[in-house]
Amino acid sequence: MYNSWLQDPSSVHASWDAFFRQTYGGAQPGEAYQRPPNLATPEPNTLPLSAFGAGAALVPSGAPGALGGPSDKVIDDHLAVQAIIRSYQARGHHIARLDPLEITFADLHANDKDAKAIVVRNYMEGYEEKDMDRVFKLPATTFIGGGEKQLTLREILNRLENAYCRSIGAEFMFINSLEQCNWIRQKLEPPKVMEFDTETKRLILARLTRAFSLEAFLAKKWSSEKRFGLEGCEILIPAMKQIIDKSTEYGVESVIMGMPHRGRLNVLANVCRKPLEQIFSQFAALEAADDGSGDVKYHLGTYIERLNRVTNKNIRLAVVANPSHLEAVDPVVQGKTRAEQFYRGDNEGKKVMSMLLHGDAAFCGQGIVFETFHLSDLPDYTTHGTVHIVVNNQIGFTTDPRHSRSSPYCTGAQEDIDPENVYVARVVNAPIFHVNADDPEAVIHVCNIAAEWRATFHKDVVIDLVCYRRNGHNEIDEPMFTQPLMYRKIRSMKNALEKYAGKLSAAGVVSQEEIKDVKEKYERILEDGYVGSQKVTNIKYKDWLDSPWSGFFEGKDPMKVSPTGVHEETLTHIGKRFSSPPPNAAEFQIHKGLERILKSRMEMVESRTVDWALGEAMAFGSLLKEGIHVRLSGQDVERGTFSHRHHVLHHQKVDKATYRPLCNLYPDQAPYTVCNSSLSEFGVLGFELGYSMTNPNALVLWEAQFGDFSNTAQCIIDQFISSGQSKWVRQTGLVMLLPHGMEGMGPEHSSARLERKPLIIMTPKSLLRHPEARSSFDEMTPGTDFQRIIPDPTAPATARKLIFCTGKVYYDLKKARAERGLDNEIAITRVEQISPFPYDLIKDEVNKYANAQLTWVQEEHKNSGAWCYVQPRMRTLFPDREIKYAGRHISASTATGSKHMHLKEQAQLYEESFA
Q1: Broadest EC class (predicted)?
Q2: CA separation, residue 90 to residues 20, 67, 106, 165, 173 (Å)
Q3: What residue ranges define each of the domains in the chain, with the CATH number in brackets?
Q4: Phi (first) and psi of residue 851, to 5 degrees
Q5: Which pairing describes strands 313-319 and 302-308: parallel, antiparallel, or unpaired?
């Protein structure tokens, strides 16, 4: 009854209410019961005493408010204490001792005094020393009691300081889930929550020793080589291993990692356990045994399967290769992770997880981080939680953080003390744990929390390892040029290993002999690896693949064009299913315009004629029939930017009710995924690239909304797609679809910048509904294959000119030729495959027109399009023949924005083509 009264005084009889009020007000035994003047219900605005805390009992009997509840001062004091507790939870990180150098606080623009004011503000005004020993009831939103329900104010402040203002600064109060906030509080606040047993401490020391020893060994053997070592943040290795250990306990079998160059060799050696001789041989000037140009050692990836000796479970570890665009690998890792989850049937991400490492300057400076975070909760892109680790050097290359970001933290943009402003990580409610990298046990505690958070809630989490670089940007850089004060402090400091080993030795956890033995044992392993590396004669880049496709290429001719035709009954079946309304059409109401589109498609199927949208559906459907997974991703791909695809039909009156025809072709077909993406090219293209790396027997496609929109993904195209095979022997089956065509719609909607990327499918815009841009079933049945060129079917061998072109311009030229009556004088051949260049077929075609003038015609400007790629290859093929160019002149812009000028340029193109 008393507990009920604490929650709501009106829930008990008025006589009991009076009794409890007297008792709570401090009445002595035997004096609490008084016959109430009447049995009326207390006034409705009476507060439940649970809101005031146990301290209310300190009000003496007979004091003002004794009969009606606690005094105003008691209420104010308890509310102030609750506000203090909440302030520490929300803002304690501002005064946490996060910097190992003790140069700055978390907030770069605040000093110690300012930071403390941020936490306690005016809540302590009016308190005196004697108040520090007053007892206050703890609210339900804190766990500092560790089982106790009330504490003195002194002890409350002490425990809050220990939880939030020592080596860990936690940001989580912005999360809009009480369950998740309380979960984090329970991991941080209870007394002794961060205590480890002796074996765990010894394991931390051993792993830290390995991380230090490797860097020292590399520095000794290759003192003049860049290696982007981990000195100053060696705790990263024990941290990553702890996350992997804990995640393995929760069922994870595969971890896919992406990281910048700093510390990569240490991660490969001590986290992945890549053979040391393979790592050390990268320092030698050896030739590659594989095709390709290769890459520097700190950009390479790897793939390892091994036994996790801590958990005694097998684990697969992959580090994805990446360039010096530090964060460009982020979406690639996420796509690869999502694909592995898909093929394993891991719909909740319990078996496969991703871990992303970041640099502090890159994390806050590169927009791809934000784009990747925004994929984390999208249904077709989520990886069910990523552990992010920021190696926070507190400096960029040479730039002070006060000049490289506007936010207090590299993890986001908080202004002053408002905890509700948005962080990069906050947009997806990811908690952020800042931690002093020179406190190994605090780091490991945070790693345990992060791994369990990910396993429990399947959401992202960020660990900000606040550390430093003992050397400059690399080992041959001089940091004193620009950061003299910081590096004077660094060079006078003991490193984290010395500090931690000394601490454990002083506590009797390990002896000096044991510390020495651990170090010497690993040094012998390093020496053995070095000796082994001397026997390596060449570099095998296939040993550095992060996604090996075992057996996929063996015995196959990469230049062979295989038959692609399918049986007519298959085409008809797919076409009819794709052209039919949902089976429950009477209940499933589709748009009237779609009814007309479906009817038109059915008519094409019956006439054995195929346009682009129907042909695409038949291609996808025939693969699905064969068990090949197809995934199409990009902005508005479900409908198609030009309203041509309609792979998802929507009920016009019921939200989220959809029907996908290509998912309902055959009972045993492969799954088909078509998904509208976020408005991101860089992030989503990177994601699909990573997805395509996992399984060679899949068709993964990304479509740009317009061809030129892929420009913001150019980093992925240049660094991963166009050059990935040469640098990393990377294997990918990604297909890019770039809508293309010069139609007077301005620069950003005209070109797909073909000259930047010849390995792409240039898909049409106006040709989607062009009456002549259609094919017969006869061109798709067994015995047919992809036509690398399409010869002119009517021009005679006596034609005076042979035009080569590609894309939409063919239909414009064909129409203009007919209008000029030049069908017997001009032959027009379409080049459907530009790369690899079809030398054999081009040669045969030219031989058919022995006396014809050879001309390449394109819509794009002369410095754009395919001309710069085609011209030298045509000259190689026909060194003694002139190859003319007809098209627009050189321009920095891809197209004019004037419709009048566009038509004028187009007319000039025809004149030059037929001259």
Answers
A1: oxidoreductase
A2: 35, 36, 14, 11, 5
A3: 2-70 (no CATH), 74-188 (no CATH), 226-274+296-509 (3.40.50.970), 568-768 (3.40.50.12470), 787-914 (3.40.50.11610)
A4: -105, 10
A5: antiparallel
Q: Concatenate the DSSP letters of all residues of 671-736 into one string.
A: PEEEEE--S-SHHHHHHHHHHHTT-SSEEEEEE-SSGGGGGGGHHHIIIIIITHHHHH-----EEE
CB atoms within 10 A of CB 443: 30
Q: CA–CA separation, 269 vs 280, rounded Å?
A: 10
Measured over the CA atoms of residue 81, residue 86, residue 89 and residue 93, the dihedral's sign is negative
Residues in the chain: 915
Amino acid residing at 404? S
Average pLDDT over residues 525-543: 89
Other C-beta atoms lying within 10 Å of the C-beta of residue 149: 10
Question: What angle, 0 to 180 degrees and rounded to 10, lies between the N-to-C axes of helices 72-91 and 112-120?
Answer: 130
300-315: per-residue pLDDT in tens?
889 999 988 888 999 9
Element (H, E) at 569: helix 568-578
The alpha carbon of residue 156 and the mean position of all alpha carbons in its chain are separated, in whole angstroms, by 40
% of the chain exceeding 90 in pLDDT: 66
14's torsion region: left (phi>0), alpha (psi -120 to 50) or beta? Answer: alpha
Contact yes or no for 299/262 (Cβ under 8 A): no
Strand partners, 610: 775
Q: Given the structure tokens 């592995």, which residue do they identify?
A: 340
269 CB-contact burial (10 Å; exposed 0-12 / middle 13-18 / buried 19+): buried
Contact residues for 160 (Cβ-Cβ < 8 A; gap 6+): 84, 85, 88, 92, 144, 189
What's the rounded Cα separation, in Å, for the pair 701 and 760?
Answer: 11
- Tell me: pLDDT of 63 over 60: no
Structure tokens that stand for 761 in this block: 């499918």
At CB < 8 A and 24+ separation, what contacts does 49-52 make?
A: 49/5, 49/6, 49/9, 49/24, 50/6, 50/7, 50/137, 51/78, 52/78, 52/137
Q: How many CA atoms lie within 13 A of 265 on its CB side?
A: 26
Query: Tokens 């506007």 belong to which residue?
Result: 406
In angstroms, how far is the first alpha carbon of the chain from the final one?
Answer: 102
Per DSSP bridges, beta strands 658-659 and 649-650 are: antiparallel
Which two structure tokens, joined as six digits, stand for 744?
């007077």
Neighbours of 187 (CB within 10 A): 23
Cα 202 versus chain centre, distance: 34
| 42: pLDDT strictly greater than 50 | no
Contact between residue 170 and residue 191 where contact means Cβ atoms under 8 Å apart:
no
> Can you tell me the distance from the alpha carbon of 26 to that of 55, in angstroms, rounded to the nearest whole number?
11
Side-chain-side CA neighbours of residue 451 (13 Å) = 22
Query: Smallest Cα–Cα separation from 632: which of 621, 806, 779?
Result: 621
Residue type, 432: I
How distant, in Å, are the alpha carbons of 81, 282, 534 from that of 285?
66, 8, 11
> What ranges in 760-882 are assigned the alpha helix state H?
809-819, 839-848, 867-877
User: What CA–CA distance (Å, rounded) separates 500 from 515?
Assistant: 11
CA atoms within 13 A of residue 157's CA, in its CB half-sphere: 18
d(C-alpha 523, C-alpha 214), whole Å = 8
Closest CA to 698 of 689, 708, 709: 689
Coil, strand or helix: which one is 815? helix
Residues 317, 255 contacting (CB under 8 angstroms): yes
Q: What's the whole-model pTM score? A: 0.88
pLDDT higher at 882 or 408: 882
Mean pLDDT of 350-370: 92
Q: How far apart are CA 828 and CA 813, in angstroms?
A: 8
Structure confidence at residue 24 (pLDDT): 60
Name the 3-class secondary structure at 197: coil
Sign, CA dihedral 639-644-648-649, equals: positive
